[in-house]
TrEMBL record:
Domain HTH araC/xylS-type: 187-284
UniProt KW keywords: DNA-binding, Transcription, Transcription regulation
Superkingdom to which the source organism belongs: Bacteria
Organism, as annotated: Enterococcus columbae DSM 7374 = ATCC 51263
A Pfam family this chain is assigned to: HTH_18
GO molecular function: DNA-binding transcription factor activity; sequence-specific DNA binding
Protein name as annotated: HTH araC/xylS-type domain-containing protein
InterPro entries: AraC-bd (IPR003313), Homeodomain-like_sf (IPR009057), HTH-like (IPR037923), HTH_AraC (IPR018060), RmlC-like_jellyroll (IPR014710), Tscrpt_reg_AraC-type_HTH (IPR020449)
PANTHER family reported for this sequence: ARAC-FAMILY TRANSCRIPTIONAL REGULATOR
Length: 296
């Protein structure tokens, strides 16, 4: 068996498929370069060695060898910092289309991302040796000169995803992470924001709803999430807009559902956040989804 912990690999494969990518990383996390981000595909983040602090959709918690994060599409996340000299992890970025293609009537590979207790993103804890064994295939990159190697590689990836689905379905290995920064009032605000994205959600609304000052909200929100209150709300609204666009197929039909007061403000904010207009996003979604990821 390959000992993944003895390897220093920054890039495992490049577009083995147009619907998934895998990275095996063993570098030092620069907290000034690991930005809050999100994407339109799923991420499976597995820690093979070391410890780090991770932010996922409102909470910061510690991850260590054997921790697997199933990160849903458009959930804000980042590595905040590492707390050990070595921090080795494997990222798998995978599209819903890939999982749907290999699903059957009896086996839905997207099940591990189904809603459980208002959460789609999940934290799994697995024995580190077992996790390394399940991921040993990633260092055997498919070769153009070896007939069938790409199919074998893909089959091993699917076996890994089946393994994770079984863990989630059994609930045996799933656990609530121990939150490192706790502020019940801010957590309540984050839940309120998520459930009321059609509201303006300005500071006046939050002040009246939670009976705290605007100063408290802006100060504690930045301290707790690393984002300003306005930026957090804006990102949540725009991510919600992307989900609605897939259903309504028209930005004119959804901007008010995302709490924007004007159509022009929505268009400007969407273009600034995603680099494309809502119309261009709809056209892009209509095509086969491909992953293009800058590993930072």
């Amino acid at each position: 068996m390959n000992d993944l912990s003895n390897k220093k690999v920054n890039f495992v494969n490049s577009m083995v498929s147009d619907q998934f990518e895998i990275y095996h990383v063993k570098d030092v996390v620069d907290r000034h370069q690991t930005l809050y981000h999100y994407h339109d595909f799923y991420e499976i983040h597995a820690t093979l060695a070391g410890k780090a602090t991770f932010y996922l959709d409102g909470n910061q918690f510690e991850i260590e060898a054997g921790t697997v994060l199933l990160i849903d599409r458009n959930d804000l996340h980042r590595i905040v910092s590492q707390s050990t000299e070595i921090f080795e992890r494997v990222y798998i970025f995978i599209t819903p289309e890939f999982l749907q293609t290999f699903s059957t009537k009896n086996t839905n590979l997207e099940s591990c991302f189904d809603l459980i207790d208002s959460r789609k993103s999940k934290v799994l804890k697995i024995k580190p040796d077992m996790l390394k064994k399940m991921l040993q295939f990633i260092d055997s990159e498919p070769s153009d000169n070896m007939f069938g190697s790409d199919i074998i590689y893909q089959q091993q990836l699917i076996q890994y995803i089946i393994f994770l689905n079984k863990l989630v379905l059994s609930s045996k290995y799933e656990r609530e992470p121990t939150v490192l920064m706790q502020n019940k009032r801010i957590e309540e605000m984050i839940n309120y924001i998520s459930q009321n994205l059609d509201h303006s959600l300005d500071l006046d609304e939050m002040e009246k709803t939670f009976f705290v000052s605007k100063y408290y909200i802006t100060r504690e929100f930045k301290k707790y999430t690393g984002l300003t209150y306005h930026k957090f709300v804006q990102k949540k609204k725009l991510l919600y807009a992307k989900r609605l666009l897939k259903t309504y197929r028209s930005s004119a039909d959804i901007y008010q559902k995302c709490g924007f007061n004007s159509y022009s403000h929505f268009l400007k904010s969407f273009k600034k956040e995603f680099g494309i207009t809502p119309k261009e996003y709809i056209e892009k979604e209509a095509k086969t989804q491909r992953i293009y990821y800058q590993n930072d």
